[in-house]
């Protein structure tokens, strides 16, 4: 029997089925349930079942799905709009069950703009998830074809691989040919929300020349992607003409691709960013499909030297302004953040974003805490990601070992996802999330009791944990042995320690130093009586 | 010509030759010098040259090398003793050149007990290094044979491999057979200080039964290792009889091998820890050889659940007492720390240790910030290590991917060392160490200017950085290409951004938003004049 299995918890109606990975334990404990992003699985050609289809249909055309803005009635089937009206959608209830919280709490956090539930009405395949500082910290994995590496099947497989290891959302950053086709396959096979940077495809439509970009081309691209079901879109509307020179004097200038494209357009036309001047039109389109804004930080620092500078914070102030405009239209919004930041400058980023953006969710890339380790930036950035998550960042965009060097392959995607699941969980522990430590405690208890199979099954990566153990001690008996290869059978600290625990275990009445000393004297008699044989098991 | 080479800086006398890795840069900058721990290299059978032999001989028998304690004159050739007398030893000057600081500052930090310079008089092969919070953060790598894996040659090779990648000290934790012989080969081939846990060998001498341990066996083991040249020794003198029951009620009890052995001894004899009762005799022996104490944290937490508990902090208070006793004998001392600690409980560990131990250097194992990722504990712990380093920990003991699962092989040792060099350097950046950021800035500048070879040569791991780049773009021209595989030639943000930099570069006079707008208008004329051709290079 497989000790790790997928189980579903049912909500208030039969079609609310919330997935978990259930781990059976051999120590007499109840099974433990872990958050599961892997989805139901599917044949890539067929696509996933449309979990949300009925929920979306029930709401279609209802009065509750429209909003009046400056006299005009607009379609507005957004989770934020429903939440503000006090409506708990099936999506909100799904999230509540998934996070182990009250549905009303989920609704209130969304209504306040402190959390978003990305769910395009044209992406019914998504299993609802939530992004907000008062929920489990989420992670995003980037995939996508490029001019020099281009295979639709490979990207769909990366998507499935990323969600298997725990990616909560995936961004399709495809450039080059087949962008539309690649995205279609990704949408239909994704159990998690999909994000994009529409500017990349718009640029393809004008043959890669930023100068030729214009609002019409961009708007058509947005609508094309909205129809396919993209759940959130990165929009670089904060890169204003007057900010560009501030970035030009940096060590690494502008490192955001979208940011550099818009900066190039602004300079070429010496006009204000058209994404900024047409922002309210964008809001109307996003409201109609329930697309969430991911306000891009086009001027994020690209090096330790440029962290927290004028260009970065000037743009952040504009993102704050744009956040409040999106809320006028009941459009969900989160803000993107750096990038490259040394540890002592990380907290300021979260505090300022939360203040300027009315506590809208923060979504950061890393940050990398040093620039000296290309090929290990999943580690340089996991350090910053764990800290910024603890400080209140809601979602962490992964960085793979290939960052700054090349395109991530299958193994790089896994390394990046695992490093970020570690950062996110470390943040949840530090934030004191109610359910976070239960997982650590279960694994620690299994470790102390030498229940190797339980340790492997509870591990973030059971395969590798088992593989590493077997390298030194392959024999099956070693899986139940009361020692490991680190100390060997004779000197195992856990073994000695558990013997001690038998003497002074949880049931011990001993509470003060005096009582302890008294207790010791009593115990000594027992030792003598059994000829100090307490430690004989060690040399078995 | 090799862009990375070993160079030596000479001190005030010809035999003070301080090693650096020098990296030549192609951007017109001066070469950059990086801290180098790799040593001069040697034939394992011959051993390394005795760099410090003359310095030690010069001091032998001098009045400055004795101390009078409670009426008795004791041999005391310790760096702390010389520092207190205002003497700057060649070792201190070597360290000053190595860290880019004044020799007098080095002496003062050692005299204050805030830093240690581990240098057993019988280990003349060491290249002097210093451990203290006001210096570069150091890292330690553990190696050693065990009952189930036993090869002298393999351990010497791990030593050389660890120092090649940046280990500042190495601990030989050998158990099983050939402990003495293994250590002898390690000592004679080590350019870095070697630490041990003498209790492991003492236990071998009583056939692995903790109950049979006694002071005489332990003392003889200490002297045997002192004669071989061990530079610092972990002594578990803080595990007091009355603390044991406090640990017995934990989720993971006692996870320190030395701690569990002494706890077993205390319980079996219901007597106080003999390392505590004979501590002053230990101080006299350590003084004679200039061995530094690494006061062991035998009761460190072994899980998130047990972090910062009564048992841990009770022992820490005793370590504070022992630190001040060691200083009576002018013996150098540092204190060991956890272990497993969630992020929000890390700072308390450093603050309390610094307060109780009079700012003696703190030396921590990680800490791991979560228990759920066996096989990735180099990452779970690099997060905690970077933070605790920033907060003032002087040396970080590495954790490899095999932690909790098996014995690290060659590749695991490298993964652990690199993860910890990242953590240590991130800490130096956050502490604002004067020379730390120069390395990041050099690499960032090379990155922005597409000087790929410079990026590889400046990388913590040049081999892997080059390998990862070549996986996607192997062609030699790509090494100088003004793009990378991430965006491809057309959409490279760095490329666009550097074009912008040409327009508004460091020489730009523009300082205010108004001037910028004015500046933009002026620039627009130039754009028009050249037919908006600024971005044509992009599509080359």
From TrEMBL, chains A, B:
Cofactor descriptive note: Binds 1 [4Fe-4S] cluster per subunit. The cluster is coordinated with 3 cysteines and an exchangeable S-adenosyl-L-methionine.
Catalysed reactions, semicolon-separated: 5-amino-1-(5-phospho-beta-D-ribosyl)imidazole + S-adenosyl-L-methionine = 4-amino-2-methyl-5-(phosphooxymethyl)pyrimidine + CO + 5'-deoxyadenosine + formate + L-methionine + 3 H(+)
ATP-binding listed as a keyword: no
GO cellular component: cytosol
Protein name per the record: Phosphomethylpyrimidine synthase
Cofactor requirements of the protein: [4Fe-4S] cluster
Keyword tags: 4Fe-4S, Iron, Iron-sulfur, Lyase, Metal-binding, S-adenosyl-L-methionine, Thiamine biosynthesis, Zinc
Top EC category: lyase
Pfam families assigned to the protein according to its UniProt record, in alphabetical order: ThiC-associated (PF13667), ThiC_Rad_SAM (PF01964)
Residues involved in substrate binding: 142, 171, 200, 236, 256-258, 297-300, 336, 363
UniProt GO MF annotations: 4 iron, 4 sulfur cluster binding; phosphomethylpyrimidine synthase activity; zinc ion binding
Chain's gene name: thiC
Binding-site list for Zn(2+): 340, 404
Biological process terms in GO annotation: thiamine biosynthetic process; thiamine diphosphate biosynthetic process
Binding-site residues for [4Fe-4S] cluster, renumbered to this chain: 484, 487, 492
InterPro entries: ThiC, ThiC-associated_dom, ThiC/Bza_core_dom, ThiC/BzaA/B
Keyword Iron: yes
Pathway(s): Cofactor biosynthesis; thiamine diphosphate biosynthesis
EC number, UniProt record: 4.1.99.17
């Amino acid at each position: 029997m497989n000790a790790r299995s997928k189980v579903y918890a049912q909500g208030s109606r039969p079609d609310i089925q919330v997935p978990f990975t259930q781990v059976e334990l051999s120590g007499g404990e109840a099974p433990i349930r872990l958050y599961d992003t892997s989805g139901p699985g599917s044949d890539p050609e067929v696509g996933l079942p449309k979990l949300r289809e009925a929920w979306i249909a029930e709401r279609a055309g209802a009065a509750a799905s429209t909003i009046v803005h400056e006299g005009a009635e607009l379609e507005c089937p957004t989770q934020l709009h429903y939440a503000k009206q006090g409506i708990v959608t099936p999506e909100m209830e799904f999230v509540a069950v998934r996070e182990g919280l009250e549905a009303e709490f989920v609704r209130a956090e969304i209504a306040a703009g402190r959390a978003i539930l990305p769910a395009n009405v044209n992406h019914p395949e998504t299993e609802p998830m939530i992004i907000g500082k008062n929920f489990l910290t989420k992670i995003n994995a980037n995939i996508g074809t490029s001019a020099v590496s281009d295979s639709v099947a490979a990207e769909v497989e990366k998507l499935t691989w990323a969600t298997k290891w725990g990616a909560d959302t995936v961004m399709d950053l495809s450039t080059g040919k087949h962008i539309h086709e690649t995205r279609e396959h990704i949408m239909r096979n994704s159990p998690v929300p999909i994000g994009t940077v529409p500017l990349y495809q718009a640029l393809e439509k004008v043959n890669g020349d930023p100068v030729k970009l214009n609002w019409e081309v961009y708007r058509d691209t947005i609508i094309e992607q909205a129809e396919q079901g993209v759940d959130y879109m990165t929009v670089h509307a904060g890169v204003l003409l007057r900010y560009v020179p501030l970035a030009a004097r940096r060590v690494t200038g502008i490192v955001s691709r979208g940011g550099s494209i818009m900066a190039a357009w602004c300079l070429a036309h010496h006009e204000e960013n058209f994404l900024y001047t047409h922002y309210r039109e964008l809001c109307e389109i996003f409201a109609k499909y329930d697309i969430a804004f991911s306000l891009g930080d086009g001027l994020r620092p690209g090096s330790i030297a440029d962290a927290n500078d004028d260009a970065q914070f000037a743009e952040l102030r504009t993102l704050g302004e744009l956040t409040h405009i999106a809320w006028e239209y009941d459009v969900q919004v989160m803000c993107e953040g750096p990038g490259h930041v040394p540890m002592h400058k990380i907290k300021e980023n979260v505090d300022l974003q939360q203040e300027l953006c009315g506590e809208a969710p923060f979504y950061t890339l890393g940050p990398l805490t040093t620039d000296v380790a290309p090929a290990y930036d999943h580690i340089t950035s996991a350090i910053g990601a764990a800290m910024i998550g603890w400080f209140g960042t809601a979602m962490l965009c992964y960085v793979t070992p290939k960052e700054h060097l090349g395109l991530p392959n299958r193994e790089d995607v896994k390394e990046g996802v695992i490093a970020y699941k570690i950062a996110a969980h470390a943040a949840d522990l530090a934030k004191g999330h109610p359910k976070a430590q239960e997982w650590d405690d279960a694994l620690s208890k299994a470790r102390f009791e030498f229940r190797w199979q339980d340790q492997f099954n509870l591990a973030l990566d059971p395969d590798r944990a088992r593989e590493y153990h077997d390298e030194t001690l392959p024999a099956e008996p070693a899986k139940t042995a009361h020692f490991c290869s680190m100390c060997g059978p004779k000197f195992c600290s856990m073994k000695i320690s558990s013997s001690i625990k038998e003497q002074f275990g949880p049931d011990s009445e001993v509470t003060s130093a005096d009582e302890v000393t008294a207790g010791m004297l009593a115990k000594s008699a027992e030792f003598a009586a059994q000829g100090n044989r307490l430690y004989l098991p060690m040399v078995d």
